[in-house]
Protein: Ribosome hibernation promoting factor
Organism: Yoonia ponticola
Amino acid sequence: MRYQISGKQIDTGNALQTHVQSELGAVLEKYAGRPTDANIVFSKSGHEYVCESIVHLSTGLTAQATGHATEIYAAFDASLEKMDKQLRRYKRRLKDHHKERSQPVELSDAGSYILAPTDESGEAEQDTVSAMIIAEIETKIPSLSAGEAVMQMELSNAPVLVFRNEKHNGINVVYRRDDGNIGWVDPKNAG
């Protein structure tokens, strides 16, 4: 397992890094069979420390948790508690609903773009015909069932997840609706 522990304008000393590796390692060993890597970033927001933890599991799923506290160790502990809860739920769901998966999740490469912000009227600040791309990132699109996609979206606390549907190999989207329910866009089954 690979750990990447860093701080945004904060020194993460050896004691903190050792604490993070031992505590997170114990939680991951308890719930996640083969985690591949963990990225933990510490930052400061006002008077509080913020700890953002992202763990990639060998199944292709990603667990993400954030903790806030006035002390850096307490911020990590808050993040770890949320991560523990997510992984416990994930493991329970795997036992209950996804016993049939025998192979790891297949990932496809895709481009991800961040566009320039718009003003309050909804119009782009730049030329509206060609919005300015301010960042281009490579991302992975997992090949999942719809149920696994919803679980992945909930684990990562994301509002939307694009995935390749295992049943027909088409691109699908699940998203959190304003009413709290989950929406599923499946163009293959339209009409």
About this structure: The helical segments are 14-31, 72-97, 146-155. The longest helix spans residues 72-97.
